[in-house]
Structure formats: C-alpha cells, structure tokens
Design a protein that fits this description.
- This protein has three domains: about 90 residues, 2-Layer Sandwich (Phosphorylase Kinase, domain 1); about 170 residues, Transferase(Phosphotransferase) domain 1 (Transferase(Phosphotransferase), domain 1); about 45 residues, SH3 type barrels.
- The chain is built from eleven helices and 14 strands.
- A six-stranded antiparallel beta sheet has the order 1-2-3-4-6-5, with helices on one face. It has a five-stranded antiparallel beta sheet with strand order 13-12-11-10-14, with no helix packed on it.
- A hairpin with a 2-residue loop joins strand 11 and strand 12.
Length: about 375
C-alpha cells in the first residue's frame, strides 16, 4: 500500500458579495439581485464558461444557498424542450461524487437556468492551473471518485459526454464532485456557435479537448465515451496538460481521430509504467479497445498503485484518511470489498464504504 497522505487542498479566495449600489452601476450584471423561479435570488457571480454564467443564490423557500447556472444563449423551442428533458434526468440522478441538480426554468429574456447544489471548493481546472501536475496518488484518488460517479450514471443509462477538469469540483479536503450529469448534450444544443463546444445540426457534441473519436464523428455515445474523457482527465492531472492541445477546434478533432497520445513517461515525472498503460488504454481510438467500464478503469488505476479495495486482514489496526479529510485510526474486522467492518476509536463497530476513503493513504 502507498503511504501518501493528502495535504490540505488549496485555500479558497474570499469573494465579497456586491452591494445594491454596485448592482446599479453602469455595466453591472443585470441578473444580480434577480429572483429566478420565484425563489432563487442571485447574490454574487461564481464564474463563467464558454456558454453559461454561474451565480451563488439564496433559495428563499428552503433558506439555503445554491448555485444557479444561466445559459448565455436564447435557444429555440426544440433546444428548450431538450434542456427541460435533460434537466429532469439530471435531477433524478444522485451520487455522493456528483453535484445534485435541484430545479430548472427560464430567466427574464428567455434564458435557461439550472439550480444546483452549492459545492465548496474549486474547479479542478483551476487547481491544475495553479498547482501544476498532481502526484500519481492524488490523481488516482480524484479519478476514482469521478469514475465511481460515472459508473453509477452509466447504470442509469446516462452518458456525461463532457468529463473535463472544469466540470470537476475539488472540495477543500480533496473530495471530487462531478457537475452537469445528463446535461452536456442539452447545454450543447443551446450553445452559440462561438462557444467552447461544438454543435453541428445537433450531432457533434462536446468540448474539443476531451472529445472521443466517436464524438468527433457524430456517432452514438456510450459509457466508453466517458472512459475516453476520463483518460484525458487523468493524462491532464498527471502531465499538467491534455494529450492534444493547441490550434483550432477542428484540428483538435483531427488529432483525437488520428494521432496516438504521447506516452505519459515522456511528458510526466514519476508515473509508474502500469499507470501509464492504464491511461493509454482509456485513450484508445476504437471504443472496443478501451476499458469496457468506468469501474474497470478505476480498478486498473488503483492496482497500478498497489491499492486494494478488499479490507485489511481482521485484527489489523490501520490509519486512513477519509474523503472529508479527517484521519482515523481503526481496527479491521474483515468484511467485503464494498463494506469494511471496522472498530472505531470509541470501541463501537461500523460498516465503512471504501469509496469514502483515500485508499492511497492506508498505512
């Protein structure tokens, strides 16, 4: 077992909420202070991407803070219906490593919006921008959580289609959460042509940096499409950059279709050969040559680092870091791979889901 202990995740910059006077200044965001759906009052901007703005909002019905994503484009009737349908799918999906979707509707002027769980932390894209490549243990810890969520979605018939660093939130203690389950296709249908996604007659959907070859060709997507994108994400975490980059979107599509990714050992330091091989298999051009499921990729990544999901032998005392960042000293009582039986510090007995643990920290 690796003995890596995750350090605290990067601190969050404090953002002050705009005052009412600031909201009235020329050039101020006209949506600040607006109430959407009769209950969500937008209080401050959290960020924006190629086709949407995200705000912190107060849910005045349930007295809680939420995140509200507002699409910049005004879609046609067909795209609106697709958005509503996909939003309902997203709201029905729940997983500990996915950001929950609560509600959706139309803003003034016909803009579509989506209310989501407000997740503390930062997008993985910002983490990588500021910190550079991640150590293999940390990258696999993040990827395992993402892949667990993807597998659960795939079992529900949901393909994410846009698994990229900007769609992964990293909470302060390292827990990873995936955004926009079930919504990538709906967002693309509503996007403007100049946005950072591609839409051609509703057929080519996704972000060029992470698009699988079948997406580039407008072919049907399945779970292996997300496995490819997860491979790109892993490559980026380990190397500090995606395998294909630079140039215009259509050149990126051509690279995904025709060029093999450079081996990680050539562009990243300290990546074990088995981990390199697991990532490169996820990036195979033919879906049949990739890992067949998100769980198969997760297991291969953990095996490459010597991580096991089976509980430690009964009677062994061990220390491990929880996904929330708390370190615990426990005694193993055996159990199954998905339900460890442990004795806690106070002597009580509990079942522990290994998905809530940083398995790379076990010692």
């Amino acid at each position: 077992m690796s003995t890596t202990i995750l350090p605290p995740v990067w601190p969050q910059a404090r953002q002050e909420r705009p005052t009412r006077r600031q909201r009235r200044l020329p050039g101020a965001d006209p949506l600040l202070g607006a109430r959407l759906g009769g209950r969500y009052r937008l209080t401050r901007p959290l960020g924006r991407g190629g086709m949407a703005r995200v705000y912190e909002a107060e849910d005045e019905v349930l007295d809680r803070l939420v995140a509200v994503k507002v699409l910049d484009a005004t879609p046609d009737a067909q795209a609106r219906e697709r958005f509503r349908r996909e939003a309902r799918v997203a709201a029905a999906f729940s997983h500990r490593s996915a950001v929950a979707t609560f509600d959706h509707g139309e803003a003034p002027g016909g803009l579509l919006w989506l209310a989501m769980e407000l997740c503390p932390g930062r997008p993985l894209s910002e983490v990588l921008r500021d910190a550079g490549p991640l150590p293999p243990a940390r990258a696999v810890f993040v990827a395992a959580q993402v892949l667990d969520a993807l597998h659960a979605a795939h079992e529900r018939g949901i393909v994410h289609r846009d698994v990229k660093a900007a769609n992964i939130m990293v909470e302060p203690h390292g827990r990873a959460r995936v955004l926009d389950f079930g919504l990538a296709k709906a967002f693309d249908q509503c996007a403007l042509p100049e946005c950072g996604t591609l839409t051609t007659a509703g057929e080519i959907l996704g972000s060029p940096l992470v698009m699988s070859p079948e997406q580039c060709l407008g072919e049907p997507c399945d779970a292996r499409t997300d496995v490819y994108a997860a491979g790109v994400l892993l490559y980026q975490m380990l190397a500090g950059a995606t395998p294909f980059r630079g140039g215009e979107a259509h050149r990126l599509l051509l690279l995904h279709l025709t060029e093999p990714p450079p081996p990680l050992r050539d562009v990243a330091f300290g990546v074990p050969a088995a981990l390199d091989a697991a990532v490169l298999r996820a990036l195979e051009k033919d879906p049949a040559d990739r890992w067949p499921t998100a769980l198969a990729l997760r297991d291969a990544l953990e095996a490459a680092l010597g991580v096991e999901r089976a509980p430690p032998p009964a009677g062994r005392r061990f220390t491990i870091t929880m996904a929330c960042g708390v370190e615990r000293r426990l005694e193993s009582l055996g159990g199954a791979a998905d339900a460890w039986q442990v004795r806690l510090e106070d002597g009580s007995v509990a079942a522990l889901d290994p998905a809530l643990l940083d398995l790379t920290s076990l010692r």
